[in-house]
Amino acid sequence: MPLIVEDGTGLANADAYVSANDVLTYATLHGYAFSLSDAAAADAAIRRATQFIDSYRARFPGYRAKRRLQGLEWPRVGAFTRVPSGGRDLPFLTLSDRTDSYSEYLGVSYIATNEIPVEIVQATCEAAYRELASPGTMAPDLERGGMVKSLRAGSVEVVYQDDADPNSTTQLIDGLLSGLLIPGSGGMFGSISRG
Question: Which residues, listed in sequence order, are joined to residue 175 by a DSSP beta bridge?
Fold first, then answer.
């Protein structure tokens, strides 16, 4: 079944933020090997990547434009980015100072209710590349919740702090999404983790 890429209207049956060609372009620009020779595998990787990005839902500002009637978390109403689109030299512009369609107030730029932000697109492309290379890598199942207290293999032993998160963190994806995530929603970038 072909991908149904969200177009900004809040499609009920959307299952992807990007197309296979979007991921191919992203991968090529970043020096990654991403092949479209197996279209079904590429589409499946994009679907899993989109699900992973949507797992950040509690950290995204605003709410779904069509609430539960849309398939994905974006587009959203009331969403914003903390990185001013008007430039770092003028972070506190008012709507009357703007020449584009976004309003900016107190250092945040509001995202149009029909927009899929570039951060979402880039993070989905990154996750799709990783999912195609190693299916299930973005959200693996964790045996016993991943709560490893000690691990020994011969003379090598790994013991984590008692309060350490049992999952690994996807730093690049967290970084790509950092401007969209609600401040203080967890970690330096409002991180989500994977095993």
Answer: none
Q: Are 70 and 15 in contact (CB under 8 A)?
A: no
147-155: long-range contacts (C-beta < 8 A, 24 or more apart)?
none
Q: CA 56 from chain center: how many Å? A: 7
Strand pairing category for 168-169 and 104-105: unpaired
Question: Which pair of tokens denotes residue 96?
Answer: 């009357």
Tell me if 110 sits within 8 A of 53, measured CB to CB: no
For the entire predicted model, the pTM comes to 0.75
Write out residues in the chain with pLDDT < 70, as ranges: 83-107, 141-151, 157-169, 184-195
Longest Cα–Cα distance of the chain, Å, equals 67
Sequence ranges of the domains in the chain? 20-78+113-194
Q: Which amino acid is at 90?
A: L
